[in-house]
Write a structure and sequence with these properties.
Blueprint (H helix, E strand, L loop, with lengths): L1 E6 L6 H11 L2 E4 H8 L7 H8 L12 H8 L3 H29 L4 E5 L3 H4 L7 E6 L2 H12 L3 H9 L4 H4 L5 E4 L4 H23 L1
Parallel strand pairs: 1-3, 1-4, 2-3, 4-5
Helix pairs in contact: 1-10, 2-5, 7-8
Length: about 200
């Protein structure tokens, strides 16, 4: 089995590349989705997060309001570190379970974890290959505004808090250029898939 990390930046096309890989036959899991599940009532980090940030983080249904929580930590680095320390270990544990399940059912398969801050957390070291979905910063801003209905100021503020894609390139084994049309990105992802698939098969022999 080949362990692959898939990362990118704000609106860089990372999730689209992940969907393409899944359609081609990869086993794909999203770290963001794991993080959301961990914060649900009964989730691994729910009680710790409520105890740390207060019951005012809960909505009327008793669930953690992720937007409210994000607003609290967005411009407070220490609080963000606190939140990450509560959530990330559980996300990494779930990823290991995912890898174990894929290895058992498909020893020659490609297991992909999609995560936005893989390089920043250092977790990229846990993968055999790192894939970066990349486009220009201006394209990221345009897509984010179109996707989320945000304004340019908010988009640039979000980008300012992320490691620039150009810096992430140095860490990547493969880069998928997502600056063109979706069909062009599909073609590039299919080319990547052939390389990953062959390496996974060779490892299994």
């Amino acid at each position: 089995m080949l362990k692959v990390g898939l990362t990118g930046g704000l609106a860089s096309g990372k999730s689209f590349v992940g969907r393409c890989l899944a359609e081609l036959g990869a086993h794909v899991a999203q770290a963001d989705r794991m993080g959301h599940e961990i914060l649900e009532p009964g989730g691994e980090a729910f009680d710790e997060v409520v105890a740390t940030f207060g019951h005012e983080m809960l909505d009327e249904q008793g669930r953690i309001d992720r937007k409210r929580l994000a607003a609290v930590v967005f411009n407070a680095s220490k609080k963000l570190e606190q939140l990450n320390a509560l959530v990330h270990p559980h996300v990494f544990a779930r990823q290991e379970v995912f890898f174990a399940e894929v290895a058992e059912k498909d020893p020659g398969g490609v297991a992909v974890i999609e995560a936005a801050i893989m390089i920043e957390t250092g977790s990229y070291k846990n993968y055999d290959r790192l894939v970066l979905a990349a486009c220009s910063q201006e394209e990221q801003i345009r897509r984010f505004i179109h996707r989320d209905g945000a304004d340019e100021i908010r988009a640039r503020a979000r980008l300012a808090r992320q490691m620039p894609i150009d810096k992430k390139r140095a860490y990547a084994d493969y880069i998928v250029d997502t600056s063109g049309t979706k069909e062009e990105t599909r073609v590039r992802t299919a080319e990547l898939w052939e390389k990953l698939r062959l390496e996974a098969e060779n490892r299994a022999e």
